[in-house]
Write a structure and sequence with these properties.
Elements: E1 7-10, E2 14-16, E3 21-27, E4 37-43, E5 48-53, E6 60-64, H1 65-68, E7 75-84, E8 87-90, E9 95-99, H2 102-116, H3 122-135, H4 139-152, H5 156-168, H6 172-176
Parallel strand pairs: 2-9
Antiparallel strand pairs: 1-3, 3-6, 4-5, 4-7, 7-8, 7-9
């Protein structure tokens, strides 16, 4: 449990797809110690792009890329804050993420298609695709690709990648499962 409020789950230290919508996720263990909670999105220069009111208990915020003012190929951060009478006060550290660039996304899609076309086991394909996501630092996608593989093929390599992915994204409880 986090004594200071919510624990961020996603996106943290990962590269995300450039899609129409982003879902911020957090674990809510304790009462927020501030009023009017918001999620604040900043560019890497620290300039606030937007703030969105949240319901702490929901554990999620869905917002469009347009609302968040996100662009492909750029790095951002987000954090929890309070908006008391229009004054934004940070209540957590900043959590970094990157939106994949169009060129990197095109290269990734082409590489994934090549792997899917290989004449090899589905487990082998999943492992190779996970490594492609790793190369792009798309850690959440890497973990999603590896979890079903872990159920059928509990190798040390898969275990280490799951541990690494969860640790880098700040999900220490999940990471412990793969130590």
């Amino acid at each position: 449990p986090n004594m200071f409020g919510p624990q961020a789950i996603y996106p943290v230290q990962t590269t995300i797809n450039n899609s129409a919508e982003l879902t911020f996720l957090w674990k809510y263990d304790q009462k927020f110690d501030f009023k009017e909670p918001v999620v604040v999105v900043n560019d890497m220069a620290g300039k606030q792009l937007t703030s969105k009111k949240i319901s702490p208990q929901s554990g999620r915020l869905n917002a469009s890329f347009a609302e968040l003012k996100l662009s492909a190929g750029k790095k951002y951060s987000w954090n929890f804050a309070s908006n008391e009478k229009g004054k934004i006060t940070a209540k957590s550290g900043r959590l970094n993420f990157t939106v994949i660039s169009p060129a990197d996304k095109q290269r990734l899609d082409a590489d994934v298609a090549k792997v899917r076309a290989l004449n090899m086991s589905e487990d082998g394909k999943k492992f190779l695709i996970a490594q492609l996501y790793y190369r792009q630092q798309m850690l959440d996608a890497m973990v999603r690709e590896l979890l079903p593989l872990w159920e059928t093929n509990r190798t040390e390599a898969v275990k280490k990648l799951l541990n690494y992915g969860y640790l880098r994204m700040g999900q220490t409880e999940e990471a412990k499962k793969y130590q």
